[in-house]
Amino acid sequence: MIRVLGDFDLAEDAVQDAFAQALRVWPERGVPTNPGAWITTTARNRAIDRLRRERTLADKTATLTRLAELEALGGDEIDMSGIPDDRLRLIFTCCHPALRMEAQVALTLKTLGGLTTGEIAHAFLVPETTMAQRLVRAKHKIREAGIPYRVPPAELLPERVPGVLAVMYLVFNEGYSATSGPLIRIELCDEAIRLARILQGLMPDEPEAAGLLALMLLQHSRREARTGAQGEFVVLEDQDRARWDHDMIDGGLALLDATLARRRPGPYQLQAAVAALHARAPRPDDTDWPQIAALYDRLAEMTPSPVVELNRAVAIAMADGPERGLALLTPLEERLGDYQHFHSARADLLRRLGRADEAAAAYRRALDLATNPTERAFLERRLAELRAP
Amino acid sequence: MQYLLLIYGDENAWEGMSPEDQAEGMKGWVDYTQWLKDTGAHVAGDALQPTTTATTVRVRGGETLTTDGPFAETKEQLGGYYLIDVDNLDDAIAAAARCPGAFGGTMEVRPIQAFDEEGNPS
After folding, report:
1. Is the pLDDT of residue A91 over 70?
2. Tell me: the pLDDT tens digits for A294-319?
3. How far apart are CA A164 and CA A382, in angstroms?
4. Interface test mutation site (partner B, options A55, A57, A89, A144, max chain B beta carbons within 10 A)
5. Looking at A87-96, A167-176, A313-322, A379-388, which range is the least confident one?
6. Which chain B residues have a beta carbon less than 8 Å from that of A144?
7. CA-closest candidate to residue A273, choices A333, A344, A207
8. Is B3 exposed, middle or buried (0-12, 13-18, 19+ CB in 10 A)?
């Protein structure tokens, strides 16, 4: 749609119209045999209507050209098999280096249709209004500066890759730990993995593309074990490892090993290596925590961030005891004071040290910040356990 | 779409160059202009005299204020421009990246805002 219309807003509006009509029509007449094609065709017709209306207002040459292109597409013969490419094309357009990195990621998440502005804001730890402004500015620049809607030619691919990988990673993360609703949004994880696979096939020599795919596979392999019978959150050390998807683990490990052998490490490969150490441990006690801490050391060198420091502190706590981990967490409070996982990690270390009152206070701070009901339930359970040992 | 490629650089660098380097540098600009013309992208292009020749003009309260020098003192100065007509921003960036001004200096790529007869953006 966007490729033909050359206009994000018009395409977005047209697709929204089409979905609205689907909600009215499908319950009465039944779901069409190919719902995707139905939406595309309806959206196309809606866009034609809108453009015709625009034309009567002002006879714009560009409008006429787009109208002619749309009408030339025909009605029923729109090829639905083109959608994966369309999505990838969309990602590459959104990840244009002329846009700021954050805007690249946010725009893709929004336009891919998976995430709301609120969810994207959550992923970036910024207020929703800030994120809304960024999205408007990015769309404006795409339109006014003539950023083309296409998968770029081969020579331009390398500079786009960091943005594209970051987008897939954030889509996956939102699926892995959703802002609202159930803990895991499988469809977002699946979509991120699917796109990462296409990209990795497109760029087999890019080790970070393979690293990211391996990371996703290794994380996603635990999806069944991460929630219990009542949908409650199960932490890594309490998970039933027999419920991990071992085929997926094998796929991820093979890909990672082949990629690490190229000796061009990067942040995604390092994170995948951490996930691999978890995946390789038959029991929680077998986990090679010193090695995980060492990997986070390297990661902190490559991409300094307080969240990486937090993970490193947790790994050191597991390797050398909670007291050392706690000492490393304290200086992070200034930067991570509004980050739920900082407080839950701190609470967990305090709990292990038997400092129940401080642990309870930290769990309460985490609860103040937690939005996902499954995570909230987990934190409340931990809090209750502290009161009644 | 039309784009203006604004060429920023250290205008004193040229004076410090040997005559041979200057001749080679000049050839680079001539070749680049010819390349733009060959690809059909060239609309216009000029070099500017150095900022020592610049005059800044403002009208405030009905009064014209004229001062010596450029609007802003910066490390890199606007030294010239090309107006090009290409398909999209990628092509404009590719054209800017070939310009001799991009080597050592900085190119700013700005889309032209066109208006119709009523003054509406088009």
Report:
1. yes
2. 999 999 999 999 999 999 999 999 99
3. 38
4. A144
5. A87-96
6. 111, 113
7. A207
8. buried
